[in-house]
Design brief:
4-stranded antiparallel sheet; binds flavin mononucleotide
Amino acid sequence: MGTIGTEVGGLRLANPLLSASGTFGHEDEMAAWIDLREPGAVVLKTVTFHPRRGNPPPRIVEVAGGILNSIGLPNEGIDHLISTTLPRLRGRTSALVVNVAGERADEFGRIGEKLAAGLRDHPQDFQAVELNLSCPNVESGFPFAKSPELASRCVRMVREHLALPLLVKLSPNVADIAEIALACKEGGADALTLSNTALGLALDWRTGKPRLGGGHGGFSGPAMKPQAMYLVFTAFKKTGLPIVASGGAETAEDVMEFLAAGARAVQIGTATFRNPFVMREIVRRLPELLQEAGLASLAEQIGRAHRPASGAKA
Ligand SMILES: Cc1cc2nc3c(=O)[nH]c(=O)nc-3n(C[C@H](O)[C@H](O)[C@H](O)COP(=O)(O)O)c2cc1C
């Protein structure tokens, strides 16, 4: 592993950046702008067991400090992922993470089965699974990340079928992130992604109607960073689980801050909409920041805020 290489829950990455699910196309669309090998891993858009149409437009509105989205998980379903998307991406990414969600609790096991069958035929097609328990834009999705019992059950149903690294993506809209995180660990999670978008609402004051077709939405972008930082810091301190940060990262400095809080890797989402080359730019800048901090490798930055020598208050 080079100086900016990292590892999270068994997933080895050449650099600590992952594209955030849903912000980097559904398949290989982003290849029109960048080399898909630039991120340490590409995370695919959430796929459900059955195809979904998604929510009515408008699906994204701009608000101060970020965006609100109500996309509603449109996708072609798990069979399409395995038969079409994965072959299309074969060998074109540094690492590939499949993101999946059940619409009902019992679907998680069936999704796990399908993924395992796909891997039997093509063991190199993807290197990890991210379980989305926390989409705010589907009626059925959110309860999974709110209840420790449900979260643990969903994780276990997928774990039973898969040996490869399993990341679980949680919601920021919970009272105690550590409680949910520990339940996921018990269910067999290798790592957490913290976090999905935060519930939000934007109204047209003239009509009093929501600006998004789906009503409320999920907030993302730079204003989300302090909240995501808090979740990463708290979950690291209370659970020790490996963490992938997600929420508001835009610069190499943001990435270093998330690493200090305890993240082992960082997802870049909304920032890609503004600048499709942002991940390349961050990857180039990271070695300079390590040098500036007097660190030999990225590993030395991970969890720095929790070590007394850093001078940070716990
Ligand atoms: C337009 C849009 C679509 C998204 N779709 C998904 C999705 O399908 N699955 C998922 O797990 N997260 C989804 N997310 C959440 C992102 O992956 C990410 O966790 C969140 O946006 C916070 O990071 P950011 O501030 O860097 O964008 C979506 C976010 C946006 C903005």
